[in-house]
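Format notes (please read before filing issues)

Several people have asked whether sequences and structure tokens are stored in separate files. They are not. Every record keeps both together, in the order shown below: the sequence lines, then the token lines. Line labels are part of the format and must not be stripped during preprocessing.
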Amino acid sequence: MSKDFDYIKELFDADDVRAPESLSEEKMLSMLKEADNSMTAQAGSADKGHDAEPARRSVRRRALKWAALAACAVIAVFGIPALYNSALFDPDTSVRGGELYTFKSESEINRLVRRLGRSTTLERFNMKGGGVTDIAVEESADFETNTLGDTGTAAPAGSGASHSETYLQVEDVDEADIVKTDGRYIYYVNDKKEVVILEASGGKTKKVSTIGSTGIENYIRDIYLKGDTLIAIGKVYDEDHGYTAVVSYDIKDRSKPTLISEFRQSGDDIVSSRMVGDFVYLVTNTYVYKEDNRLPMCTVDGEFRSIPVQDISCVPDPSYASYVILSAVDISSGKSGRSKTKAVFGASDDIYCNNHNLYVAVSEWDDSLRAESTRIVRASLDGLKIKFNGTCVVRGHIDNQFSMDEKDGYFRIATTSDRDGMDVNNLFILDDNLKETGSVTGFARNESIKAVRFIGSKAYVITYEAIDPLFIIDLADPANPRIEGEVKIDGFSTLLIPVPGDKLLGIGHATGDNGYGGEYASGLKLALFDISNPSEPRVIDSKEFKDMSSPAQETHLALTVNSEQGYFAIPYDVYSYDDLVMIEENEHGVLVFGTEKAIDIYDRHKLGNSQIMRSVFIDDFIYALDSYGNCESFRATPLRSSRVLP
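Then the structure lines:
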């Protein structure tokens, strides 16, 4: 009997359920022992009276009565659901009503982790899709065109008249980067993962101070700037554990930055972050490797502790033990460091974020489709009020964050998938419940998506295999999206930028013959498209730069836009090759160009001997920063155009 009680107690302890004192272990065992002694004595007395068998039956009935009373007491206190949930069954994580399953106890998580076992990032392609909101895709090839629709305009965050701003995917949703400027100072993350503050004036700079290597964080990844507050996103390593930190500094005195607050959360795998108003939203992945560390952790009231179970949810039928952790940190709260953290079983490769929703996306392997798929998990954002509230699966994988967008309550996502061993491409439109409303699937056979840009009710998609087609897809009717037109050009773009006059700028790769029947990226390519007639887009101009590469081919954050003077600037490097093997680095600098009527190269400014990572402008000067944090400057091309860039 004692063993049975210990088993029940173990289950309830795992769920952190506590009985009242009147039903404590000591009192229950004492009551059962007294009953057992009494019944044994009665049975012995009956034996002496030669009526043993009826007495034994009476004892058994009384024992069952006591057991039933004890069971009723347990059920009365804890309830049938709690007793059931403490059984050895995995929780039912199916999605109902569009919301994810929320765990009821730590033991549910423990059982799920034990079943899933340890996981590594290499297991991502061994996952299984499924769940109520999963999307079954029927592929088709829709190449119909329709009449000209409205062409939306997507502009980056507005640049001030005197200095550059970070080029953004979504207006008013700031993105962290390795460089920021306020027009007087430049803040830059160097190769030592420190933030160097430079004062800039008239093309000259001087170092003012450095932030980093303070013991608070030992690896700054990127930064935000909000007035006199600098926010560093970085990694912290404590013995065998890795965490991510959001650390705020008061920089009213740029020569003496002072710590305001520090927030930490589990996971040194930083997926991404965004800042909306006064709130930084941070997304990390963390994996469960140790039996004694199954709950993710975060800072609450200055103490680093486990996230409450009720703040942890789960995707349908998870296949590996890891969490996506989302935190909202109030930068305006000063030393109090107000924050809120939620977690969901799953993982993330990239995110899309606007001012009210954040979507995380991760590649999975779907056993039912026998194909790669993308799991999408949505979280609502409202200051510190955050909640994971929906999930679904679509066929294929995304290219990057620009493959996702939301407009008027519809989520749009472009993917590349496999059909009979051949790449095909898709665009799905999902409603507020993440149910498929419409799609265009199976286009551009044997090619894969290299760039996407959603602009209003249009999607512009670049695919590539041997040539670079630009597809324009009309999304005005979410139930019936359709390809309106396409145009082809050699090479391929990896970043698409809307420019005035119904034009689209592509930054990407020139390609060449590798001598073995294939192609290789042979340099930098700029392409300018006329999209004024969506049914008949055309190439206005293109420029190729042999053996040149730029960080802007990989990230939009490396693009500088001067809307007042009408120019773009990107860092570049030139490498010399012999039979596709690099033999020399011989040029580093900043390429400055405009797009009023064609692609006009204003300046190919050579600088130093180190790779240039970013450039910013302040007044008439462009400041270029290399990977070591060194800064060089030159006077920007004078005003060439009266057309204001977005």
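For reference, the curators noted about this record: The two ends are 77 Å apart (CA to CA). Residues 569 and 592 are 4 Å apart (CA to CA).
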